[in-house]
Here is the input.
Amino acid sequence: MKKHPTGSRLPADPHVEDQVAGNGLLHRRTLLTAGAAGIVGTGLGVGLTGAAAEPLTDQPWDLEVGDNTPAYQVPSKRTAYIVRTLSNPKFEPRSSIARTPHHLLEGSTTPNGLHFTINHTGIPDIDPARHRLLIHGLVKRPLVFTLDSLLRYPLTSRPAFMECGGNSAPFFSPTPIQANLQALHGLSSCAEWTGVKLSLLLDECGVDPKAKWFVAEGADAPHLMRSVPLMKGLDDAMIALYQNGEPLMPGNGFPMRLVLPGFEGNLNIKFLRRIKLVPGPAMSFWESQVYTEPMPKGPSYNFTFINEVKSFITRPSPGLNMKEPGVYEISGIAYSGRGKIAKVMVSADGGKSWGEAALQGPVMTKAFTRFRMPWRWSGGPAILQSRAWDDQGNFQPTRAAFVAERGQLDSEPAVTAFRNHHFNAVTSWGIASNGAVRHVYA
Amino acid sequence: MRSALVFSFCLVAGAALAQDKLAPHLGKTVSASDMKRWDIDIQADGAFLPPGSGTAAQGAPLFAEKCAACHGDGGRGSDLYKRGLPSPPVLVDDKKFKPIDGGTTTIANFWPYAPPLFDYIRRAMPWNSPRTLSDNQVYALTAYILAEGKVIDPKLVLDARSLAQVKMPNREGFRPRFPDLMPH
Here is the structure.
């Protein structure tokens, strides 16, 4: 298996660096202006490295005919190691979970083949011509829609992150579980979804004012059902038909799914076949037992609709070890189920000092925002952290603050266990002098 | 009457009206009898529970035949579970719920309402052959699991009325995480 290179290394110019926080964090403008650096010399200078490259030679691939062009292209065999990890590869009679390899990806869109998915009774093989969407209950006219009919409606596109309520569950461990980013935060992905606004279809059915909730149900074997406040259905809910420009992936809900931007993944019902407007919630299995948060004292949380503001550093991260000292780009992902990311701060000294990261635009509401931060690694120990704020004034808690409210387990669970949900506190990566990156609590 | 309906309808749907002009209105009407097979959701308070009934005694042999292979005898966990391996959920366990730890929740010690158990069995179980149980069988299995969990008297005949009246021990054990998002 090929090793993936560590965080992209930029050439260094010690004379123009602008340190903004402890342990080598550089000002984000160093990055923003780096493209013009060769001309004006304000950013990190280019062409200043001392080492000489090896002689440039012919390679087999530029001396022979290449491969045939396929009808549907898949990634290079050279990157065949960039895959989802599977919780149930032998397909035993239980849920199957595939996690996104954030540490090997960039940008703010998750490729369709790598979008995380959880399927509780396998992936249904749905014939789109025979699939139906029923909207009924407290409406004036119960109506049935086909995929073809929905394609005639006005379509809208928007990015939205999708995150399992159980993403980051290993962080409830009292000790930092040694696992990579994919195992720790891999149940979160972001795609551009295209479909029909649910409000448009509800309008056609005619909403009875007695309706306060709707239940949404899938056409898969568990007929997975959740209860959603009707207000969300009238706001930004969508019946999505396309994912990053192509029909939904089978594991992500083909031929249609509910997308509730910012809401817990399980609520975004895949294989959507039924929406019923109802007076109250069903308190289905998923909201009675699974997606609830037992607290240290008193009542457990339920109806945890929103995935709150969160961020994590993707490079470097455990398994992507540092090589020689020098300038690196710290890269990461931030998102909030309540709005747009307003600010991400990065620390290289375990939270003692912070510098503001550059946000890759356009910054979209309830979507992944890529942040980047230049860093000169001295070769000494460091603890990298990121902390995000959204435009509604919400911010990511420190781990200590989170644990003070929500508690932690009294022994280390299996990394794949879901003993509690909705962890969104700061993640810390410890860098050792030899460049090894470990998960730490700081 | 009609104008009142139209008025309230407009209040709810006002935001969508601009788009509505562009909508092709292609939904097809459907009768209650034609949607009956799909109309299976139960409200937490027991609304929509169907006719029929069952008892724990009727549920016991059904459970052994259709459920125990995955959930273990009496729903107490399969061999996989007892070996600490990933497994289908344990349904009945005498363990106490421990704060913070979702791994210690069971139907009896955690679920706030009983009708969702009927809802879930009917829609999702058995794992490899969902929607094959009759409503009477689902009532019987619901009664069996609740009786094994010591939530109900083993002799109780479970039907729409009695299931809605079952008081789960942890009924008051929850608070909504986002009260402002809860419909009033």
